[in-house]
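Kindly inspect this chain:
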Amino acid sequence: MNDTILSKEELNLLASLVHAPIRQLVWDLDAIYFIQASRTIRVESFDGVPATPNPVRNVEAVALRVSEIEETPVFRSAGEDGHYYVVVDTNTRIESIAVVRTALCMPTEQIVHPRRGCIGGTLTLCDCGILIATARGFVPAVQRDNSFGFHLWGAPRLFSREEVEVELETDYETRALTSLANA
């Protein structure tokens, strides 16, 4: 089992959000929350151990976990002291979700584009983020440079497609959820 790539079940949970009504879309340092009327889906960052033929101690790959959580957290639109989250959109529908993938050259943990080779190491694919599209813009929830937690691209907000593409063009690829779920 490779815990650096989203499972079929996790991809299906993400796919169930497309075109679904969302009460709150919340960006946190290490999680994205999709708050719906009857459930909450959390996409969280975690440190996984990559599947390599020659495992090395303390080698990690940051990846994603997707789950439906039991209790619905309360997120205030204005935020709250002691917590770093932003309600980036409310009362919206998710137009699309793309999985952001990179590759790690192990054991050095160097980030490379998934279609490039890895000289002197093992290439490990890693689903390191998602790109969420709403009618008002894009929410990038991407772990950059094999660093835990979602990267800050300035203040968390809705971004344009162009802003996101510039940030991800070198070492990342985005793959539509439908192509991954059917793979």
